[in-house]
Amino acid sequence: MTRIVVKMGDLEVSDRPGDVLTAILGSCVGVLIFDAAAGRAGMAHVMLPERIDPNASMDKRGKYAIPAVKALYKEMLELGSRPSSLAAKLSGGARMFSDNNLQNIGERNLERVRYALGRLGVPVVAERTGGFKGRNVSVDVATGRMKVRDADGQEEMI
């Protein structure tokens, strides 16, 4: 088993049986796109809903919601997945600072990610999002099953 850590702003795709994609999420959103029939999965660790400053660096493919989803989708297709075989799961998007109502990054990240997936026709089949706690996720690449553990240690398989 190879554990692949998907760091903030990055994305990773694998079709190797036994690989596990992992991420620690707060207001960031873990976007999983998987093709269970092909045993292929990819995850983007989305940090921000959009790029406000046009001069901001685009060096991290998973940093901004819409470009991250598009890049992840493209990589899945390049590895041989058909658009109709793809599905998505989401985790994260928590409101980590309850007094930060004006800039709820987690909620805005989720909104933009859902929009991008919808535009691409990728259905969201499961999600564990929102709330006020961080999450640790791990994904079995071969099956697309995502284990979500919240900050209190409660685990759920989606």
Written account of the structure:
- The protein is of the alpha+beta class.
- The chain has one domain (3-147): 2-Layer Sandwich (60s Ribosomal Protein L30, Chain: A).
- The protein is built from two helices and ten strands; from the N terminus they run βββββαβαββββ.
- The protein has helices at 65-78, 105-120, and strands spanning 3-5, 11-14, 20-25, 29-35, 40-46, 87-92, 124-129, 135-140, 146-150, 155-157.
- The strands form two sheets. A five-stranded mixed sheet has the order 1-3-8-9-10, with no helix packed on it. Strands 2-5-4-6-7 form a five-stranded mixed sheet, covered by helices on one side.
- The longest helix is centred in the C-terminal third of the chain and has 16 residues, at 105-120.
- It is globular.
- 42% of the residues are buried.
- The model has no long low-confidence stretch (mean pLDDT 92).
List the helices and strands and how they pair.
Layout: E1 3-5, E2 11-14, E3 20-25, E4 29-35, E5 40-46, H1 65-78, E6 87-92, H2 105-120, E7 124-129, E8 135-140, E9 146-150, E10 155-157
Parallel strand pairs: 1-3, 6-7
Antiparallel strand pairs: 2-5, 3-8, 4-5, 4-6, 8-9, 9-10
Helix pairs in contact: 1-2
